[in-house]
Design brief:
Elements: H1 11-15, E1 29-36, H2 40-51, E2 56-59, E3 75-76, H3 84-91, H4 93-104, H5 106-116, E4 128-131, H6 135-150, E5 155-158, H7 160-167, E6 175-178, E7 182-183, H8 186-199, E8 203-205, E9 212-216, E10 219-224, E11 227-236, E12 254-263, E13 279-282, E14 288-292, E15 298-303, H9 313-325, E16 334-344, E17 351-356, E18 359-363, H10 370-384, E19 396-397, H11 405-424
Bound molecules: flavin-adenine dinucleotide.
Length: about 425
């Protein structure tokens, strides 16, 4: 049963074809692993633990996909935010190569899970386009193209005319088409991954916020308002939505918001816009994204919180963006608007931490979390199953606070707001 727009946290919450729901924890329980957070990281950890015959309980404060996993743009991209050579510089040669390889194949792995568990998430597999907002953006894309091409990735550099043909907009200076990538209904994938984990034996409770973690007699005691879970291991899959549960975790990244507007389904001639259904984001410092959904809606987004709810400044920006990028379209009716929180780090590289004995977390995917969340969840499951910690998808690092986090957060939000104001004048 689709949720009414007023209650839904995103378009995807209204439209996800996966609909299973779960109940809060009711009484005490035990498992090998307690997982906090029911997004991609938590659900993938549970699914992969089950494959190692390790039992788990997922405890989700709200609902599956309540965090970034049910609010994102649904661009299933390969690799990290940074081009491969920069990843190697930051992470180190050996670990960096492993990471680039794993995440380069990330979409393929996600598609294989979607296939295996018949996850209903409106998949398209025609790639994504990183579009040049300016000639300088095209130079950046050419560099990315050369790096990925060297690694044998199926990427294509689109000139201005080719980009215009695929995007249906003359506003871009070319693009980088990555054939490994695609688009999904992100909430459909989150719920499907949860269903897959449960089908393999994991237990899942929603409406169950974990309020305390402590060690008692060599085990983790995981406290919630409706029961205590006793477990050998804990995995925190709370990412940008981390609360005060683990000291310092929500200060290890800068939260940045991203908002989106979804139109009513477009019809007829309007099908020229992203006609092959690639998802798009641009090289601008304040990023712009656009995609279509399975029903033909156009979804546009940019950085910052939704200002003025569904009717205020952000809506004016969205209507103006459509006029700028797709002038032939005419006025569109907006059906749903929402925003979500992204965990950013200064170096744009995610972190996997061992926070204490038998306590892992993966955080700060820097706006690219669909395949990293899936891959890092699998990797943490491997570590719990006994794989050498030094062979994880991402090397373990110590928790350290992002410098001037609050100042940075406020600074970003202010500049996004100023940018939007400027763009709506
Ligand atoms: C607007 C937006 C657009 C994005 N676009 C893309 C994109 O196109 N492609 C892409 O790859 N990535 C994108 N991302 C990033 C991606 O969505 C995230 O990186 C990913 O969803 C993170 O998944 P996660 O499971 O680690 O965390 P989340 O999905 O955020 O899940 C964390 C969960 O933890 C729960 N939680 C927190 N504290 C507690 C507690 N104490 N007890 C119990 N539960 C708790 C929360 O309720 C939440 O459900 C985008 C993100 C946003 C916000």
């Amino acid at each position: 049963m689709p949720k009414p727009a007023r209650d839904a946290i995103s378009l995807w919450d209204m439209s996800a074809p996966e609909t299973a729901s779960y109940k809060p924890l009711d009484g005490d329980a035990t498992a090998d692993v307690a997982i906090v957070g029911g997004g991609y990281t938590g659900c993938s950890t549970a699914l992969h633990l089950a494959r190692h015959c390790i039992s788990s309980i997922i405890l989700e404060a709200e609902d599956v996909g309540f965090g970034g996993s049910g609010r994102n743009a649904g661009l299933l991209n390969a690799g990290l935010w940074l081009p491969p050579e920069q990843v190697l510089e930051i992470v180190g040669k050996e670990a960096g190569q492993r990471l680039v390889e794993l995440l380069g194949a990330g979409p393929q792995y996600v598609f294989s899970l979607i296939e295996k568990y018949q996850i209903r998430c409106e998949t398209t597999r025609n790639g994504t386009i990183h579009a040049a907002h300016a000639p300088s953006g095209f130079a950046d894309l050419t560099n990315r193209y050369n790096q990925w091409k060297k690694l044998g990735a199926p990427v294509e550099l689109l000139n201005r005319r080719q980009a215009e043909d695929k995007i249906g907009s003359s506003a871009f200076h070319g693009g980088l088409l990555d054939r490994r990538a695609g688009t999904i209904n992100p909430m459909g994938y989150a719920k499907g991954l949860a269903r897959a984990a449960v089908s393999e034996g994991s237990r899942l409770h929603t409406g169950t916020r974990v309020t305390k973690l402590d060690r008692v007699d060599g085990k983790w005691r995981v406290t919630t308002p409706t029961g205590i879970v006793t477990a050998d291991y804990v995995v925190l899959g709370t990412n940008a939505y981390s609360d005060e549960l683990w000291p310092g975790l929500n200060r290890a990244f800068t939260p940045i918001h991203y908002f989106q507007f979804a139109s009513e389904p477009l019809t007829g001639d309007d099908d020229r816009i992203l006609k092959e259904r690639q998802g798009l984001w641009d090289t601008g410092a304040v990023m712009f994204s656009a995609r279509r959904d399975a029903h033909g809606r156009l979804i546009v987004g940019s950085m910052g919180k939704l200002i003025g709810g569904e009717t205020g400044l952000s809506r004016t920006w969205a209507s103006k963006a459509v006029r700028q990028y797709f002038p032939e379209l005419g006025p569109v009716n907006w059906e749903k608007a929402w925003h979500g929180r992204i965990a950013f780090t200064k170096d744009h590289v995610p972190r996997v931490h061992k926070l204490a004995e038998n306590l892992y977390t993966a955080i700060a995917y820097n706006g690219r979390g669909i395949s990293p969340g899936t891959v890092f969840g699998a990797s943490i499951a491997d570590a719990i199953a006994g794989k050498d910690d030094t062979k994880l998808a991402m090397p373990l690092s110590n928790l350290s606070p992002e410098a001037f986090r609050a100042l940075r957060e406020a600074g970003y939000e202010l500049s996004f707001k100023a940018w939007r104001l400027l763009k709506t004048l």
